[in-house]
UniProtKB/TrEMBL annotation:
Residues 1-22 form the signal peptide. InterPro entries: ECM_Assembly_Org, VWF_A, vWFA_dom_sf. This is VWFA domain-containing protein. The lineage of its organism: Eukaryota, Metazoa, Spiralia, Lophotrochozoa, Mollusca. The keyword Signal applies. The keyword Signal applies. Residues 38-215 form the VWFA domain. SMART domains: VWA (SM00327). It comes from Biomphalaria glabrata (Bloodfluke planorb). Keywords: Signal.
Length: 261
């Protein structure tokens, strides 16, 4: 029985150490919450778009920008258009204030093209905006694709070009407007939203803004996690497994001791 007590105490200490380690992981997560945002709009328009419908594109981007704190220097925005090839509309360093950025967005024209090339747009975004640099500390990188047609060029390169972006910590979201088939966009990302009309971009804005609000939340202390936020996902599960394991071993030892007695 003394041995069982010592063994039980040792296991309990081990479990406590694991829980403490979990708290350390939680603190590390607090320390690495993103402070900086690098956001790219990747835009494609087909011949079917008109001035009114393209305004919905612009309104989407402007509404998102309205919710960003550009002046802080922690939020950088760029835009890329693609037809047969990708082209930088403006880079991260072009606009330093919200007003100038909004004016810059307003100057983007609908580049109508029968031959979209999403792979080229993704490639330009990677090579000209993010380069070979890995994800900087405390930074979130996000590319939002806006398109109303599937690409007819280099379709077999889409997945590879998207992988180049994700390899440097970029998250990709795609909005396909009026597309019956979203499988091509799904080559670039699993985060694909299908919209029936250009008007639905207004509701899509709300979704993006919610994410930005969470990212830029300043009223709560940074890293306002509680122990309960961390433990249910990993700690409780692990603790439960160890506890069940400990219980079954203890029961078998008790049975064995009784038989020996």
């Amino acid at each position: 029985m003394a041995r069982l007590g010592q063994w039980s105490l040792g296991l309990l200490i081990g479990v406590l150490l694991i829980v403490c380690k979990g708290e350390d992981l939680m603190m590390n997560e607090e320390a690495t919450e993103p402070d900086n945002l690098e956001l790219v709009f990747l835009i494609h328009t087909s011949p079917k778009i008109n001035k009114t419908n393209f305004q919905h594109y612009l309104n989407f981007m402007k509404d998102v920008i309205e919710k960003t704190n550009i002046e802080s220097g922690k939020v950088k925005v760029a835009a890329v258009t693609y037809r047969k090839n990708g082209k930088i509309a403006f880079n991260f360093n072009k606009f330093k204030t919200k007003d100038t950025l909004l004016k810059g967005l307003g100057k983007i024209k609908a580049a109508k093209s029968k031959f979209g090339n999403l792979a080229s747009g993704l490639n330009i975004t990677k090579t000209k905006l993010f380069g070979q640099k890995k994800l900087p500390p405390n930074t979130m990188r996000w590319v939002i694709i806006l398109t109303d047609a599937n690409s007819g060029l280099e379709q077999d390169q889409i997945a590879a070009m998207a992988q180049q972006l994700t390899s440097v910590g970029v998250m990709i979201r795609a909005y396909g407007i009026g597309l019956k088939d979203l499988s091509q966009l799904q080559l670039a990302t699993t985060d694909v939203k299908g919209l029936k009309t250009y008007l639905e971009l207004r509701n899509a804005t709300k979704d993006v803004v919610r994410m930005l609000d969470t990212f830029q939340q300043k009223d709560q202390p940074k890293g306002s996690f509680t122990q309960g936020d961390w433990i249910p996902s990993s700690g409780n599960k692990l603790f439960g497994q160890l506890f069940n394991s400990f219980s079954s071993i203890s029961s078998s030892k008790k049975k064995k001791n009784k038989m020996q007695d």
